[in-house]
Design brief:
The chain is built from 4 helices and 8 strands, in the order αβαββββαββαβ. By secondary structure, it is of the alpha+beta class.
Length: 162
Amino acid sequence: MLRPVKSIYANIRNSCQNFKNIVISIKYDEFNNARVAQLLKNTDTIAQLIDNYPVNNKFRIILYSNDDLTKYDGINIISREDGIYTTKIEDDFLAILGKKTFESRISWQYSFIYEKMGRIYASFLIPDYRAREYIDMIIASQMEIKRMDLVTIENYSNINEN
């Protein structure tokens, strides 16, 4: 399975700022974007959110894959040789969370999305001093869509101390 490159974590660990890794999960069939969910489930692919804020409820993502993704609709090639593609993703929960965090001026340093055991996971690397506030935004976003069972907080850990 693909993982974010070690240099990303090295940059975070070597920064002057402390970061938390907040990982949430959504059931595969609850994730709004079936096309991307299917792609993540059926290929060796990890997605990276480019935007901290959705435009028309969509985020741009970069897909890193060991598989050829050109057979999927809406996928643009950045580098076929390196397995790098781009597309847009739409999900109600992520859109609400993105809007709330934007209004509060919270941004993630990096965010990755992947599929594992029937769930879609999103990992957010957040500055430590804003991490608890980000957890509050996750809960508030669930409340706004009236689905407290939609998202599970899977992990809340330090990045810099590992």
